[in-house]
Amino acid sequence: MRNEVPGMPRVRSFPDRAAMGAAAAADVAAELRARLAEQDAVRMIFAAAPSQSDLLDHLVSAPGIDWTRVTAFHMDEYLGLAPDDPARFANWLDRAIFTRVPFGQVHRIDPDAGVATYGKLLAEAPVDVVCLGIGQNGHLAFNDPPVADLDDPEDVKVVELDRTCRRQQVDDGAFPSFEDVPTHAVTLTIPRLLDARRLFCVVPGASKRHAVDRALHAPISAADPATALRTHPDVTLYLDRESSPAEDIQ
């Protein structure tokens, strides 16, 4: 198990999803501007999920970001879908952000290229920023409780998706039925995600409240993968009224 760093993620709760997304985007944009003022380029990883839509919609219009100096990655991808399938995460991110701002480079996961290829791209330089969420079962990327490893020696791997994770994809509207959801995917591992300098975790909706509560309060273990966020020194968690287990709303 990773050693826990004292302290908790910064938790910011908002009265609604729109306010949450706007605040998260403002913070991510400020981090990008600060990094670009100090270094030649920035590398960042994006989650692909409806929970991230509000953040990304605001981020693409944020002023003062030289996107040509930003390299983008994404954190997971289904196996077995056609390259043009709209449910593929690379295609979702193309619609959400990858084609909406002029990134210097975009590295999309190609399931046919093998996980080692993507791992090498990630390892070429440090990752500065990760924009991610938490799944209903507490997963980070596609590191579900049955396959999550907080000390995973790999950077990228193929995993089997658990039933709760697959059901969430139907609930999110990505697939018409449970049977249509792929059973396997490529995912960045938990240590790979936590190796980034800053994490911005956006988690709206009532269906995520239990997972958020576990992430903040359950023992740190692979049984609740999102608890690993508490081992990173610089995580901000953005919640709306429905997902927040706390009563105080900013």
TrEMBL record:
Gene3D superfamilies associated with the record: 3.40.50.1360
GO cellular component entries: cytoplasm
**Family matches, as Pfam families:** Glucosamine_iso
Q: Transmembrane ranges?
A: none
Q: What domain of life?
A: Bacteria
Q: Which SUPFAM superfamilies match?
A: NagB/RpiA/CoA transferase-like
> Which UniProt keywords are given for this protein, alphabetically ordered?
Carbohydrate metabolism
**One Gene Ontology term of the molecular function aspect:** identical protein binding
The UniProt entry, under PANTHER family, shows:
GLUCOSAMINE-6-PHOSPHATE ISOMERASE, GLUCOSAMINE-6-PHOSPHATE ISOMERASE NAGB
Flavoprotein is among the record's keywords = no
Question: What's any GO biological process attached to this entry?
Answer: N-acetylglucosamine catabolic process
Q: Mind telling me what this protein is named? A: Glucosamine-6-phosphate deaminase
Q: Which residues form the Glucosamine/galactosamine-6-phosphate isomerase domain?
A: 15-231
The record's annotation in InterPro entries points to:
Glc/Gal-6P_isomerase, Glucosamine6P_isomerase, NagB/RpiA_transferase-like
